[in-house]
Structure formats: C-alpha cells, structure tokens
Design a protein that fits this description.
Blueprint (H helix, E strand, L loop, with lengths): L3 E5 L6 H9 L3 E6 L12 E4 L5 H11 L3 E3 L7 H11 L6 H7 L2 H10 L7 E4 L2 H11 L3 E5 L9 E3 L5 H12 L7 E5 L4 E10 L2 E13 L2 E7 L5 H18 L4 E10 L2 E8 L7 H9 L3 H11 L13 E6 L5 E6 L2 H7 L3 E6 L6 E2 L10 E5 L3 H14 L2 E3 L1
Parallel strand pairs: 1-2, 1-4, 2-3
Antiparallel strand pairs: 5-8, 6-7, 6-8, 9-10, 9-12, 10-11, 11-14, 12-13, 14-18, 15-17, 15-19, 16-18
Length: about 400
C-alpha cells in the first residue's frame, strides 16, 4: 500500500506539494473546503474539511493512517499540523511551536521574552487598544489580523491619524482574524526582504533571501538573488538561526519576512512552511533545489536530497489580479506573454475562466503569477511590459 501524505489546502500554493507527492509515488490526501481550488482535482483522496478544524484533522489523520502532514503558503493550518505531529508521532513542528509561529502577537511575545529583535507591539482585543498603542508610540503603526497571512487586513498608518482612522484600520483587520485579536506594531524603517530556510537536526541546510516588490502591503513579486550585501545576508542568517534555536525548531522549512534596521535584522513575519507567490518555482529555477521534495523526504525519512551545486540564476515572479470583482472571462495565455515578453518562461493561474474573482487588494485574491528570467536590474522594465500586454477580462 502506498504511503499517504496529508496536504492541508488545495490552492495554487499547495499544487507543487500535491504534484510532487504523487510524482514520488505517494497518495495525496488533500484536505480543504470545497471551492474553485486547483488542487482538488489533483488529489488521490479529497476531504471537504476546514483546515483549521484541528480536532477533526487529527481524527481523520488517524483514520487514513497518514505517514506525514504538510502545507505551504499558509499559516492558518499550522496548529492542526502540530497537533497531528504530536498525536501520531509524525515529523513536523510541535503544537506549541506551531501556535507561537501562527499568531502574530504570540510570536511578538516570544521574541520579546527571548531577548530577540522585535518591534514594539500590542495585542488588541478592541479598537481602543489599537488607539491607545498608537498614542503611546506617537509614530507610524502597522495593524494586522493576529492569525491570518497573505497580506489580508494589513494596514500601515502614518503619524497624525485621527482616532476614527485607527478604528477603521482595526475593524478592517479584525474581519480577517479568526481568533478576534489584532496585532498593532510600530512601523520599522529599513531594508525589507523575504526569505526561505530549511533546518535539519538544528543545522541550517538551506538559506536564501528574496527582494520583495511591494505595492503598499501587496506583494507584487519576488526576485532572487535579493541584492543584499554579504554583511546584510549574514545579519539575517544569524537572526533566523537565533529565532529557530530559541523556538526549539530544529527541523523543517521556514518562510520569513525581515527588516534590516541599524545593522540589526528584525523578523517581522515567520511561517513554519514554505512561502507562496511562486517561491517554490523561483528557488527551483534559480538554485536547482526542489523544496517540495526536501519537505517530503524529511517528513518520511528525516533527511533531504543531496544539494545540487548550480550557479544561481536571476529569476523573478510577477503576481497579478483584477482591479474589480466579477467573473473571470479570460486572461492572456503563456504563449501570448512569451511572444511579447521573451523573459517570461512560465505562468501559474490560481483562478480559471468562469471563477469569481475579488479585487486584488491582498495576495489571497491574486489570479496568478508569471515567472521571468530577470533579476532586480531588469525587473521594472520587464514587469511593466508584462502589465502592458497582460489582458484580464472580468465581467
């Protein structure tokens, strides 16, 4: 009988895990609510269950005798993964570690109590808490849902805002918070980067950073390499290792967002999984490393494939969506894009014609992303060309 791997989520971010699971000869047990998710049709076994229903997921993991449980690109199901790992003795983060990493305020408390770099913050149970913190710091502030990812509900507020503006930001954030809490934190100026790491027996096996192309709080793409200097990379790497060590996280993937400020690295976001927005693809085409294979090899055998020594290539992603809500009628094909922009080499769609799409105000509402052979120097030119020829019809 084939080993069964439970994959939480069936969205575009989970598709590489589902495909790799099947390519490696295992059964993909995909858990997700029903919907227009591309991973559902790829599953060997599909289970219509909310990925945050921890008790139910532990139960079905036992029933199906899974050999491993994984996700990517989302934090909401990490507590369920931790609970299954604890209950069934599988490889993965413990429930304690998963709970810390998947809550923004719990992670901030952990950083502060561990003596690690952290912005000032407050856990807000009501809008007044956010206003009180804003008055206390008397500076720019970021408001986030406590337990959501993908830039949902995130707002940056400059100094000089009215109380009503803070209240609006709080209400916007709490709409996306399942536990009803909001994290307010001081805005940290500096160099922002994304990154991926993979730990094995407490040792850092893989580490890279990405340049994040931002439009406000919206991630419009990533570039690898990130353009950080050797000294900046060392500062980030050291802080990532310090956080993992204090957390007791010795094995598995880590996705992070970091700000380098005054020769210090501050980990702003942390996910004990690989990132979204084409991160799997970028690392594979840049470094020759398949992180989906690494994750599956680790959870089944406690090791990772031998790393191929390839010269890094400059690769970027461009994430796109619709300006308005409606039914997606059509979107430019890969052939159309490559004919107009030769740097384009792949395109991944999260939505297909006939699906309802929402305005692209956060990354969960993306229609898809394009992969391009270019680095930081050419990104503005190439992404502008893509934007000019990309045809998205929504009615």
């Amino acid at each position: 009988m084939k080993k069964r791997i439970m994959i939480l989520g069936a969205g575009v971010y989970q598709v590489p895990l589902i495909n790799t699971t099947r390519e490696m000869g295992f059964e993909a047990v995909v858990v997700s609510p029903k919907g227009n998710y591309p991973g559902i049709s790829l599953a060997d076994i599909f289970l219509d269950i909310d990925t945050t229903d921890t008790e139910r997921i532990v139960q079905i993991a036992r029933e199906y005798g899974v050999s491993g449980i994984v996700t990517t690109g989302t934090d909401v199901c990490l507590p369920a993964i931790g609970a299954v790992a604890d209950a069934l003795g599988l490889k993965g983060p413990s429930k304690r570690i998963a709970d810390i990493a998947s809550s923004k305020t719990a992670f901030r408390f952990f950083l502060s109590e561990s003596g690690l770099n952290s912005p000032d913050f407050a856990r807000c149970e009501c809008a007044q808490d956010a206003w009180d913190f804003y008055q206390k710091i008397n500076d720019s502030m970021v408001v986030k849902p406590d337990d959501s990812s993908g830039s949902r509900g995130v707002m940056v507020l400059d100094s000089g805002q009215t109380k009503e503006s803070i209240m609006v930001a709080y209400r916007n954030a709490v709409m996306f918070s399942r536990n009803g809490r909001v994290c307010a934190e001081s805005f940290v100026e500096g160099i922002e980067a994304g990154g991926e790491a993979f730990f094995l027996n407490g040792n850092l096996q893989f580490f890279t950073t990405t340049f994040k192309h931002m439009n406000g709080v919206l991630v419009q793409g990533h570039s690898v390499p990130s353009g950080l200097s050797e000294s900046e990379l060392l500062i980030v790497k050291n802080e990532v290792c310090r956080v993992a060590s204090n957390l007791g996280y010795e094995n598995g993937p880590m996705n992070f967002d970091v700000i380098i400020h005054d020769k210090r690295a501050i980990i702003i976001e942390l996910g004990l999984r690989n990132g979204g927005n084409g991160i799997f693809d970028l690392i594979y085409h840049s470094e020759g490393i398949n992180l989906a294979e690494w994750l599956l090899a680790y959870i089944l055998g406690g090791s990772v494939p031998e790393q191929r020594c390839l010269e890094s290539k400059e690769v970027s992603s461009y994430v796109f969506g619709s300006e308005r809500a409606g039914t997606l009628i059509s979107v430019s094909s890969l052939q159309e894009l490559t004919a107009a922009v030769p740097e384009v080499f792949d395109m991944v769609l999260a939505q297909k014609p006939g699906d309802h799409v929402a305005p692209f105000v956060h990354n969960a509402n993306q229609i898809g992303y394009v992969l391009i052979y270019c680095g930081l120097a050419g990104y503005k030119r190439v992404s502008t060309q893509i934007r000019n020829v990309l045809r998205i019809e929504v009615k």
